[in-house]
Each structure stands twice: as structure tokens, then as C-alpha cells.
Amino acid sequence: MIFGEATHVSGNAFAVSNISGMLGLGYSNTTASHIPSFWEAMNITSSSYSFYLNNDKDGNYMTVPGMDTDNYEPIKEHHIIYKKKSYQYILKFDHFKTKHDRIVKDDHNISAMLAVGYPMIVMPDKIATDIFDSIYVEHDCSNIATLPSITLAIDGHDYTLEGKDYIMHDEGICKIAVQAV
Q1: CA–CA separation, 38 vs 129, rounded Å?
Q2: What domains can you pick out in the chain, each with its CATH number?
């Protein structure tokens, strides 16, 4: 197995997280070097894997290959991944719905990307402004229970986020976990 050394990284991912390295689960044909990823180098018979995540950080684990059926919950919805690159899985995004069922969407065809390990909701600036400009979060998190719910639709299926789902508590301050681009 070939290992690489990062001598310079942009951003602050390593500075703000409690990790000292990464193992790639992507595919070599999606990288510039085409070096086999950790995943490919393991040479296992099945390329499936699963994570069990819960509120107890000590009880989380990864199963390779396959899935631990002891902690399995039936899948609620299936979504078509219409574009796959490295660790990115692209889904068809329909719209956001705010309080009073006001629909907010871009005039262009936009998609939703699932990215492993990124805590923010990233969206076009126009949509973020339309949805979140009228939402005020107390720095001490005291008003989370009264924040409006926001619904996002993927492939025609609605997923509702309560205030606690789109608020991030970071270094003693609460803030909306949305990044406008």
C-alpha cells in the first residue's frame, strides 16, 4: 500500500478537528495520482461498508465489508445518486420550505451533495439569505426550541429540520450552521 504525506493543507480542517490523518474511501480513478485508495488496497471481496452512529461517541463503529444487522433500521427513502465523484454523492434537490410553507428555490437546476464529515449546510447565497436572514439565534442557545422548522425536499421527499438540527454550538456560542456560497 502506498502512503502519501501532506506537507501543506489549505483550510483549517486538521486544526479544528481531533484527527491526525485520513484514510480514503474513494476510488483511484477520481484522484490526480490514481494511487489506489486505502479502500481499494484492502482487497476485500465486497465494496460495501456501513457506519453505526449514535449519541454515545464510544458506541460508534464501522463495519467492513457489509452491515451489522443488529443495529439496522429499515431504510425510509431511496434516492438516486446521479453523479459520483470521490467522496461526493450528488442527489436531485427540489427546494426548501420555510414557515408558512413558503417555497424557496433557485431558478437554476441545483443539486444536493452529501459530504462525509462536514457539519455545515452549504447553499447558494440567495437561498441562504431568503431562508435565514429572518432567523435570530441567541448566543446562549436559549431560543432553539422556538426556532422555525425548515423543510428540504430531495427527489420529491420532504425532510424537516427543527432548530436543533440547523444550529451549531461552537466554543460556547450558538450559530446557524449554514454556509452561503
Answers
A1: 40
A2: 1-43 (no CATH), 47-73 (no CATH), 83-180 (2.40.70.10)
